[in-house]
Design brief:
The complex is a heterodimer of chains A (290) and B (161). Chain A is of the alpha/beta class and 290 residues long. Chain A has 13 helices and 7 strands. Chain B contains 7 helices and no strands.
Chain lengths: 290, 161
């Protein structure tokens, strides 16, 4: 069975098996950049806690009867579930029923491809250009479904002990087996919430340095630092012209915007991190139509 | 990278088997449309005949919600069909609506053999329409009632023999 035989539907999943790494913020801002270019973009919230759905102000949708299970398992039209946000992205909200939906999904035939066949594909067939999935934290059928639907993943990591370890586990347990069977592109492993420069030894530098040394080809341009630079920084006899500031930087504009239920471009159009989200959106565009 | 378990071992198969109604560049059948092979069967699930005969797949047939297919793969034989592409596309479109209708009665998925067997059973009871279709294609305006009479009479005889 050739893994090249299948091509993911247009879009990407933002995923890591851990919570609290900024998946929702990144998914929201990538969807916003795609919509800003005139693409009809669906933001699909697969997080059972509905962090993004409620943060965007759609608590009612999180608690309503109609939910993803209607389309995913019962085959109803996923378009009926969409909410039009004020910033041009179509939100397919999470639901307090997602836990039950995941349990029901386990007993279904074709349980791994339901999201692709019953949700993402009908949306693309109906004229939506991209589906960006805020994937469920933790291992489970929904998380697997997200990767299998689009076959493209963006993985955010934050400066915290165990981040690289978590990445290795995800690659070993979920990404590699899916890649071997049907193909799966890692579009980016992006350092997120980076605050420090690379001049000091701390978790921020450790994360960026390890990523660049071990996963160089997956590191997006804005986070790329030649390992040579780290060697020079370690050598007290050498001087560096400018100490790099890689990664998606921690900015109050990004977190405040999210708290107020909007992408950062709506809150502060001059925020210096918007080009980084644009770069991730570029990767989604390029790889969806490679 | 070691594969921890074989959780995703059949994902490719799931994608193939659910490919119905999805426009796909890698639909193997499009390659054979111009020059149909003698063993071309009326199915878009070319892989199914291979996979269904495995014991593992037969176990999967036991769909708890509906009791699974009404007959096993072993009870079926393969028969060839030569059809034009537009005809085939019509069958594919019809299959999508059949899937939707069956879903309303808690049968969200069915096997290729169930679909094919049902199609032919329905056709077997409508010989008059088949005859009229052949005549229409040849540009012959036939008397529908007469065709119906002849087909019904001969079908009855065949059943009684």
């Amino acid at each position: 069975m050739s893994a090249d035989e299948f091509e993911g539907l247009p879009g990407a999943a933002v995923s890591l098996l851990k919570g609290g790494v900024g998946k929702s913020t990144i998914a929201l801002n990538i969807a916003d950049r795609l919509a800003d270019r005139g693409h009809e973009t669906v933001l699909l919230d697969l997080d059972k806690d509905g962090h993004m759905t409620t943060q965007l102000g759609y608590d009612d949708a999180y608690d309503r009867d109609a939910n993803l299970g209607d389309a995913l398992i019962d085959g109803e039209d996923p378009e009926d579930l969409l909410i039009e946000t004020d910033f041009g992205v179509h939100l397919l909200p999470s639901s307090n029923e997602l836990e039950n939906v995941e349990t029901r999904l386990k007993d279904e035939r074709f349980a791994d491809v339901k999201l692709r066949r019953n949700v993402v594909d009908p949306l693309i067939q109906n004229g939506y250009d991209y589906v960006i999935i805020d994937a469920a934290g933790g291992r489970g059928k929904l998380s697997d479904n997200a990767l299998i639907a689009v076959q493209r993943v963006i993985i955010p990591l934050i400066p915290r002990a165990g981040s690289i370890n978590g990445l290795n586990k995800m690659i070993e347990r979920q990404i590699s087996p899916i890649r071997e069977n049907i193909g799966l592109d890692i579009l980016a492993v992006t350092p997120n919430m980076i605050r420090e420069t690379m001049g000091q030894h701390n978790e921020h530098r450790t994360l960026v340095e390890n990523l660049n040394r071990e996963f160089g080809s997956f590191v997006p341009e804005y986070a790329r630092v030649d390992p040579e630079i780290f060697d020079a920084l370690n050598d007290s006899g050498r001087t560096i012209d400018s100490i790099p500031k890689p990664g998606i930087r921690e900015r109050t504009a990004i977190s405040r915007a999210f708290k107020q239920g909007m992408p950062v471009s709506e809150f502060d159009e001059d925020c210096d991190q918007i080009p980084n989200f644009d770069h991730l959106a570029d990767l989604v565009e390029e790889h969806s139509h490679a | 990278m070691p594969n921890e378990d074989d959780r995703f071992g059949d994902v490719a198969e799931q994608l193939k088997q659910t490919e119905e109604g999805v426009d796909s560049d890698d639909d193997e059948r499009t390659d054979t449309q111009d020059e149909p092979q003698s063993d071309e069967e009326i199915t878009t699930e070319d892989t199914e005949s291979e996979t269904e005969s495995t014991p593992e797949q037969d176990e999967e047939d036991e769909d708890e919600s509906t009791g699974g297919p009404a007959f096993s793969f072993d009870e079926t034989d393969m028969h060839g069909f030569y059809v034009r592409e537009e005809t085939w596309n019509g069958v594919t479109r019809m299959r999508s609506s059949v899937t939707a209708a069956c879903s309303m009665f808690d049968v969200p998925e069915f096997e290729g053999r169930e679909f094919q067997d049902a199609c032919l059973r329905v056709i077997a009871d409508h010989g008059d329409e088949v005859a009229l279709q052949i005549l229409r294609e040849r540009g012959i305006e036939a008397d529908e009632e007469r065709v119906q009479e002849v087909v019904e009479m001969l079908s009855e005889q065949a059943t009684n023999d």
